[in-house]
Specification:
Helix content is about 85%, strand content about 0%. The chain has ten helices and no strands. The longest helix has about 30 residues.
């Protein structure tokens, strides 16, 4: 299990990527594509360079994926002075997550199973089937989110794109996480000291 310090570090590491829609919206609203792309590139450099210097070779290779996912479109947008490349990044991120989750279903183990084993160790046959089903649910979500983000990038207003990619999509993720947590707690009643256990224990007491 991750400690509270690990969770805090992961949250801080994810913050710049979560703020991407806000950075793009601000840059495009205040100036234009080149300014927005420059903001993205500066933010990527500020976040990536310290990690690159302090990481081993294997960890550095992992940094190349998010760096390329946002850095290449930003560089292209700056060169062409075209905002469309910047707006398609959230759709590309969802497609990347869809690929990772779907690939795990075929090549195994499913992503959700891997995460569950980190929390509880061994899993029953019923829990393994459940983890596979939840991985499928996330695949459907990422596919839908990629489609919505791409449609908004192509044909909608900048405000609508920013609201979805910077707020409503994260809200949808939170709702899906919450629903899955409730279903899992109701079905299996396994509590391992997670921050939400106190509430889930009250709603779904452990079976005797």
């Amino acid at each position: 299990m991750y400690s509270s310090n690990d969770r805090a570090r992961r949250a801080l590491a994810a913050a710049p990527w979560l703020a991407y829609p806000l950075v793009v919206w601000a840059g495009l609203s205040l100036s234009g594509p080149r300014a927005a792309a420059s903001l993205v590139l500066v933010a990527l450099a500020a976040r990536t360079l310290p990690l690159w210097r302090s990481s081993a070779a294997a960890a550095r290779r992992q940094l190349l994926v998010p760096l390329a996912a946002a850095g290449a479109p930003a560089a292209g947008a700056a060169w062409l002075d075209d905002p469309l490349l910047l707006l398609f990044v959230p759709a590309l991120v969802s497609l990347g997550l869809l690929f990772a989750f779907a690939r795990s279903l075929w090549w195994g183990p499913p992503v959700v199973e891997t995460l569950a084993r980190l929390q509880v160790g061994e899993l029953s046959a019923a829990e393994l089937r459940y983890c596979r089903s939840v991985t499928w649910v996330w695949c459907v979500f990422f596919a839908a989110n990629a489609l919505v983000a791409a449609l908004l990038a192509w044909s909608a207003s900048l405000r609508a794109w920013a609201l979805w990619t910077g707020a409503f999509a994260y809200l949808a993720v939170a709702v899906l996480f919450t629903l899955e947590l409730g279903v899992r707690s109701w079905r299996f009643r396994r509590y391992t000291g997670a921050p939400t256990d106190w509430l889930m224990r009250r709603l779904f007491p452990p079976r005797m």
